[in-house]
């Protein structure tokens, strides 16, 4: 197309505005490239803004400042032990880049991180006791000024249309807010909300821009697709065999439906890992949605037969995989000890009365009655509770080893011999319905170590890059530790920007 045919012209166009997108945009703009961030919705941040903002970026200055004994070598060992050789080149690129990326980000006055304890998800060589992930420091809203309204509100308010809470931006909103500050501070990064990219413009085999409806954006150096997965698109989930449900996904409702992924496959991009997601137990919500559930402090989870099927304190992706294999429906069974509240963290947390009124929770004076209400065999549920309570008294879960790993114990609060095993024997009893939730799909465009999108034959499509859940994750069917989705999205957003800048 001639210059006059474009509505706007940039060096780099970034599609989406999560952590990977804004990291790529910042790195491109900091390298001197005119950059545009095109976001489909009215607010920035997508699922990244909802997140806890843990960043699994190993061996950086942040861990060093906190006195955490971490290194790129240890992270390499850990990833290799979990992921094997399949994605060895991207694993290597990832661990070799984390420290450099964090140094660049923290060289900007807008960005500062702090280590937080949060254990890695597997007992494997290279695991760091207490965990290696870190988070951005809270961001006073005044620092963003009017731009604070551009950051997506936290999930519990966003789902109810309640807008922004008072006080500083925390968690994922602090991450998005800080990256936004850094991006706009370069003077070379434009933000366009309400801009849904649906096509790629190709000339002579090279991606030279994008279209958002009738609007055309030129990208002289390249396009970075960082527009999430397709978790909110029921038809695409069906087509690619992703279990769970678009309604139970944690991505903001109107965000990630996969149009950029389809636009890339339409020009010959290869995909990988379809069917995979970052899984989690989802607490069924009165409105039909799901709430990310982690950190159980009591209770046990039963399948449709009234039997336990996993260590309920597993890291959420691993528990999600157990749920996917179980005979559903599943219920978290707990008792009066938690005073009518869920003995776990649910995001968002809806009051018990609403759950009981909607039937997503049941309450009964006996386990027999509870079994009838949730449709499981009463004798099986009673036997499960009796066996579990005996394990709690002894402090050993002979069936699923709950409480044996550092991660299991991280959230535990029981005062018995095993803090993860709290008896369930005080009426009234509760059963909360648990579904297979996700934090986003992780199958998507096949990419190389520079985030370049590849064709089936392994050649790169010139001018096209992808990161975050738009790309097939280097972690395959494994979620290694807290902050891996965001950490990997940031690294490959950065590496894509460096490639576009010729660095
Ligand atoms: C409660 C919660 C806590 C979590 N905590 C963590 C954590 O601590 N650490 C961690 O690593 N992960 C965490 N996750 C998972 C993580 O947030 C996501 O997997 C990750 O943020 C996805 O990043 P992304 O950039 O791929 O997509 P997103 O952050 O969802 O960003 C995609 C953006 O692209 C936009 N978009 C979509 N289509 C288009 C289009 N056609 N044109 C333009 N824009 C488009 C969307 O509107 C959206 O704003 C958490 C998730 C949840 C829900």
TrEMBL record:
Keyword Flavoprotein tagged: yes
Residue stretches making up the FAD-dependent oxidoreductase 2 FAD-binding domain: 11-485
InterPro entries: FAD-dep_OxRdtase_2_FAD-bd, FAD-oxidoreductase_2, FAD/NAD-bd_sf, Succ_DH/fumarate_Rdtase_cat_sf
Keyword entries, A-Z: FAD, Flavoprotein, Oxidoreductase
Superkingdom of origin organism: Bacteria
Keyword Oxidoreductase: yes
Cofactor dependency: FAD
Protein known as: FAD-dependent oxidoreductase
